[in-house]
Each structure stands twice: as C-alpha cells, then as structure tokens.
Design brief:
By secondary structure, the chain is an alpha+beta fold. It is built from five helices and five strands, in the order ααββαβββαα. The chain is elongated and about 110 Å long. The mean pLDDT is 77.
C-alpha cells in the first residue's frame, strides 16, 4: 500500500495553517505540534490496516455454551485470499503456531440466516440458508479453529486406539506363547476365537 496520498494530504494540511512554513533557507520543512503528529500517525495506521484488511469487516463466530472462538466470517462474498489476509490482520495470528491463522483453502462462501436461541433473549445463532431466500445473507466464512480442534481430537482418539490395539496384541502374543508351553490346544482355540471375533469388528 502506498502512503504517498496520505503524505501529500497531511503535508498540505500543515502548509494551509498560518505561520507553519519554515524560513526560506529550509523550504522543505514545516512546523508540527505533538498532537498533529499523533493524529497523522493514527491516520497512517488506520490506512495501513484498511489496506491489509481490504476493507473487509471481520466478525467472530463463537460456541454458544463456552463462548470460545470457533472461526471468523464477514458479510458478503469475498475473494478467499483477501478474506484470509483480513482474518490474519484482525487476529495478528502467527502462521507457524497459531491455530487461528487462516489460509485461503480454509475459506468458503455460504448463505446464512439468523435464528433466535430459545430461552436466551437477544441471542441469535447462524444457520445455513438457501441462496437469496427470505432473510438469507451472503457470508465468507472459515471454521479454522473448530476444524483444527476436531482434527486434533481425532488424532488423540486414533493414537489411543492404536496404542490400545498394540497393547492387546502384545498381551495376546504373550498368552499364546505361554499356552504353547502349557496347553497347545488351548492356544490354538484362543487364536481361532480371536480371529472370528476380529472378523466381526474387533476383539471385545
């Protein structure tokens, strides 16, 4: 984003005020007060943020019970890359470790409608709606936080099941080795029953 237009505007604002121009030996200088400098810096910051967010107003979607942030949305359909940049400008999320960081592939365009939450005066929830139906409005949305939490939970479940299965297999192998020594027929029967149960959907 170029700051040239803002620079020219701010400079002209100073020149238009009386007794601000410098002596002839300093034609490129102009007096400025601390308050004016502060205002110019604030304007520059806002312009910078506006450029980074592409003028997209980001809102948070939260879980009704806990209030935890689950994702972000903006009213209207926007380019996925610009929407992702606007989300990251809004949160300041780091791309390497912050679960709130949004990529273009995390974004999609939808149509929503608002629905009052029963028993909660003034509280609404958003539901998917048919495009351009009554009460529907366009949104660009990402459920990036919720999606990553779901994937993390699934990884924990998979790791637990994998560990459980490995532990069971180790125990079964130990039992079969002992039965080979104590009662080979019992070991053969145990293995047969295990295989039958495994075909039905896993050992119980």
């Amino acid at each position: 984003m170029s700051i040239q237009p803002l620079l020219e505007q701010s400079w002209q604002t100073l020149l238009d005020k009386g007794d601000r121009t410098s002596p002839s030996e300093y034609p490129e200088m102009c007096l400025i007060t601390r308050e004016e400098l502060q205002n110019f810096l604030v304007d520059a910051s806002l312009k910078w943020k506006e450029g980074r967010s592409h003028g997209i107003y980001i809102e948070e979607s939260r879980e009704l019970d806990s209030g935890s942030v689950m994702g972000f949305f903006a009213r209207g359909h926007y380019d996925a890359y610009k929407f992702a940049e606007a989300c990251n400008e809004y949160t300041g999320a780091d791309p390497y470790y912050d679960r709130r960081y949004v990529r273009a592939e995390d974004c999609r365009q939808e149509w929503w409608r608002t629905v009052p939450v029963g028993g909660e005066p003034g509280v609404i929830s958003y539901h998917n709606a048919e495009p351009r139906s009554r009460g529907a409005f366009a949104v660009t949305v990402t459920h990036v936080v919720e999606d990553r939490e779901r994937k993390q939970t699934q990884r924990w479940i998979d790791e637990h099941n994998k560990g459980r299965a490995a532990g069971f297999a180790d125990g079964l192998n130990w039992a079969l080795r002992q039965l080979d020594r104590i009662n080979a027929e019992a070991g053969t029967e145990l293995l047969r029953q295990y295989r039958e149960q495994d075909k039905k959907g896993g050992a119980k």
